[in-house]
Amino acid sequence: MRAAVVHEIGRDELEVLDDVEAVGFGPGKVRIRIRATGLCHSDISAMTGVLPQPAPFVPGHEGAGEILDVGDGVTGLAAGDRVLMCWLPACGGCAACRRGQSHLCLAGFMNAGTPNFRRGGGDVFGFAGTGTFTEEVVVDAGCAVPIPDDVPFDIAALIGCGVTTGLGAAVNTAEVEAGSSVAVIGCGGVGISAIQGAKVRGAAQIVAVDPVESRREAALRFGATEAVAPDGLADAKQRITAGEGFDYVFEVVGRSATARTAYETTRRGGTLCVVGAGAMDDHLRLNMFELFFDEKRILPSMYGGGDVLRSYERAIALWRAGRIDLAGLITHRVPLAGINDAVAQMRSGEALRTCVEL
Fold it and tell me: Is 244 exposed, middle or buried (0-12, 13-18, 19+ CB in 10 A)?
C-alpha cells in the first residue's frame, strides 16, 4: 500500500512508499479507502515539531473516501459507505461531552499514541490518530462520518477540518453579529473559511490580512470587503473604525506576534478569536491592567468551537444553498506522488488548499 511518510521530525519532505501496511483493524474499527485529502497547515506544523507528534508518521487528517470493511460491534456503517474523516471524534460520555462541548473531548487525542501503520516490522503513526496521505487507513468507527451522495470527496475532505474550523470560529465561537466589523489575520484555507463565516453572519466590513498577494485577492472573492498586507492593517483600523478597533479579530496564524497584533486591533469590549494552532513554547504576553481595562474577550476556537457533526451538516447545507464556496478553496490538485509539491505550495502561501487525489 502506498503512503507518504515523515521519517523524523524536522524533515522538510515526505517519502512516498509502497510497502506501508494499515494495522489495527478489529472490533469498533473501520477500514477506509481514501479518495481525496487536503493538506492543512497543521500537517506542516507536525512535520516541523510545532505540534507534538511521534515519528515516523503519515501526515494528513482532512480526508474522505469509502469504507472497505467494518469491525465487530460497529453499527450505522457498512462497506461501500461514503465518509469524511473526523480526526477528533467525541466519545459521548466524558465530562466535556456531557456539558455539550464535544469538540473538547480528549478521546480522539488518545488515538495519536497508537500506531495506525507498520513498515518493515516498525511502527508508523498517523497524524492526529488518523493519517490520510495514504491509500487506506484503519480508524475508530467514530472517525468515519457518512456523507450524502451529492457531496464530492474533495469537498467532504475540506469539511473534515479546515472549513469546519474557520466557519465554526465565526459562527459558533465568536458568534459574529450582523453589521459588525471584522478583521481576519491569516488567509489560507481556514482564514478564508472564517471570512465566509463572518459573511454568512452578516458582518458589514471584513478586512482580510495576509502578506501573500494571491491570498488577499482570493479573500476578496470569498467575501472580504477589503484586503491588506500586514503593514496596512493599522491604516485599515483607522479608516474603518476611526482608530477604535474592530468588533471581531480572528488570528488564524498560530503565533504570539500575530495574536498580539490581533489583540491591539480589537476594540475595547470586542472579541479576539484565536484559531491558529501554535507551539507550546510560544507565549502571548498581556499585562494584567490591559486585561482588566480593555475588557476584550479572548476566545480560543478548537475545531470550530461546537459539535462537529452539526457543523458538518451546516457546512453542507450552506454549500448546497450557494451561501459558501468550497470548490473555490481548492487551488491546486496533485497525486500522492506529488505530495512534496503540495507541501511547497503550502509553505510559500501559493495554495489555499491543495487536494491530494488518490
Answer: middle
